[in-house]
Amino acid sequence: MSSNEQINKDHSAGGDEPPVDPPQAVSAQINTENVDSILDEIDSVLESNAEEFVRNFVQKGGQ
């Protein structure tokens, strides 16, 4: 038998090892409640003083 040959075993024919399920993809979940509350807070700040809020984020002197 050459070293390049592969041997395939059929585990479904009553072998000693139980069949192994393929790995499942892990899904990422985002806690939208926290995001929504932060966005609501930003909205309320922008409604009351949007100009000051924007002024605080203007770059000064290359910062």
From TrEMBL:
Molecular function per GO: proteasome binding; protein tag activity
BP term (GO), one: proteasomal protein catabolic process
Residue list for modification Deamidated glutamine: 63
Pathway where it operates: Protein degradation; proteasomal Pup-dependent pathway
Stretches the record annotates as Disordered: 1-27
Modification comment: Is modified by deamidation of its C-terminal glutamine to glutamate by the deamidase Dop, a prerequisite to the subsequent pupylation process.
Family per similarity comment: Belongs to the prokaryotic ubiquitin-like protein family.
Protein name: Prokaryotic ubiquitin-like protein Pup
